[in-house]
Amino acid sequence: MSRNKYSEAEAVQKPAGELLSRLGWDVHYCFDEEVLGSDGTLGRGSY
After folding, report:
1. Pair 33, 25: CB distance under 8 Å
2. Which residues have C-beta within 8 Å of that of residue 43, sequence separation ≥ 6?
3. Given this model, what pLDDT does residue 7 score?
4. What is the pTM assigned to this prediction?
């Protein structure tokens, strides 16, 4: 994920994740690193 100050990650994803985290949500950034399958990162079988 690009860390440019004008990127979607910095403008939208990071602030939204921080807000959800403060509200008690368990936030994971797995776009490029998720492993699929029952023993995977989030237990998802497919996208």
Report:
1. no
2. 37
3. 85
4. 0.60
* pLDDT over threshold 60, residue 1: no
5's tokens: 């100050």
Return the half-sphere exposure (C-beta side, CA atoms, 13 A cut-off) of residue 10.
6
HEC secondary structure over the chain: CCCCCCCHHHHHHHHHHHHHHHCCCCCCCCCCCCCCCCCCCCCCCCC
**What is the distance between the alpha carbons of residues 35 and 18, in angstroms, rounded to a whole number?**
23
